[in-house]
Fold this sequence. Notes:
This protein is α/β, with parallel strands linked by helices.
Amino acid sequence: MSKLFDDFKSIVLNNTPLIDVRAPVEFKKGAFLNAVNLPIMSDEERHEVGICYKNKGNAKAIELGHELVSGEIKEQRVQAWLSFMDANPDTLLYCFRGGQRSRIAQEWIGERGREIVRLKGGYKAFRSYLLDELENSYNHFKPLLLGGRTGSGKTIELKKMQNAIDLEGLANHRGSSFGQKITQQTTQIDFENNMIYKIVQKAEEGFKTLVFEDEGKHVGSVFMPESFIEILPKAPLVILETPMDERIEITLNEYVVDAQKTYEGAEYVDAFEAWQLDIKSAMERIKRRLGDQRYREVSAIFEDALGEQKRSGSYEKYKEWVEYLLREYYDPMYDYQIQKRSHLVAFRGDAKEVHEYIKSIV
C-alpha cells in the first residue's frame, strides 16, 4: 500500500529533503526549500504525454509514459532517486497533485527493495498549506523593521539576530538600484515559500517579535505578499545609524570588491568587463532621478576609478564614487521617505545600541 504523508508543518520545521518528480518546467516556476528536481519525465516527454491524454485519454497517456521512460532511461532516473535517498534517508517524494507520477516513482523505488513516502496531495496541497500559513502568519508575531541609510550595514546586523528574517537573502537581491546579482532571483512562488518556512520556524522557536529589513513593496523582481504589504509599513521602525566612512567601506565591499569576485567565479569571458557594464546599466537606470549634470559627474568619477584599478589594481578611487552615490542619490531619497514615517520611529542608535534595544523588547 502506498505510504502517504501530510504533516506539512513537520517538513518545514525539520527542513525535510524532498524529491520533486515534476518536469523541469514545472519546478522552475516554483518549488520548496530542500527540494531537488529529479523528474520522472523530461519536459518533452511530459508534453507528448499531455497531447496523448487530450486526444486518447488517461489509459493511453499512461501507456505512452511507460514507453517513453523505460529501459536505460528508467534505470537512470530510478538510480538518481536512490542516490539522493542514500544521502538523505528521511527524503519524501512529491509530484503536482500527489497522483500518478509520484505513485509510479514510489512503485519503481519499491521494485528495488526500497521504501519512500510521498506527500498526500503533492505540491498543490503543500503549497496550499504554506499560503494559509502566510495569510495568517501575522497573528503569530509582532513585526519590527530595521531601517537605515544605504550602506549602514542593516543586512550584516540582521544576520546576527536570531529573531530576524533576511528578505533580501530570500529574494537573492541586494534591495537597491545596484542590487541585482549575477545569479537569478528566486521566483515569486519560491520567495513566498521560503518566507513562510522561516516564519513558521521562528514561531516554533518561540519568538513573538520578528525583525525585517525596512523594504518597499518589491525586492527586485519579487513583491511582498499582500498580507505583509498591509502590516509591515505600520510596524515600529528602528533606525541603524552608521558613520559615513563606515557606510562607504560597506558599500565599496558590496558593490565593487565582493561583486567583482562573484563575477570572477562565474563563466564570463571577461568578468571585469561584465561587472562594469552592469554597474553602468545601473547608473543609467537612475539617470532620470539624478539629473543630467549629476549623472555626468558620477559617471566621470566611476571612469576615473576604473582607470585607477586597471593601472594599479587599487579600489581606493571607488570610494569617491560610492560617497557621491550615497550623498547625492540614496540619502536624499531615504531621508524623504523616513520623514513621512517619522511617527513610526521607535529607536535610533548604532549597531550595539540597536541590538540592545531589540533584545529588550523581544
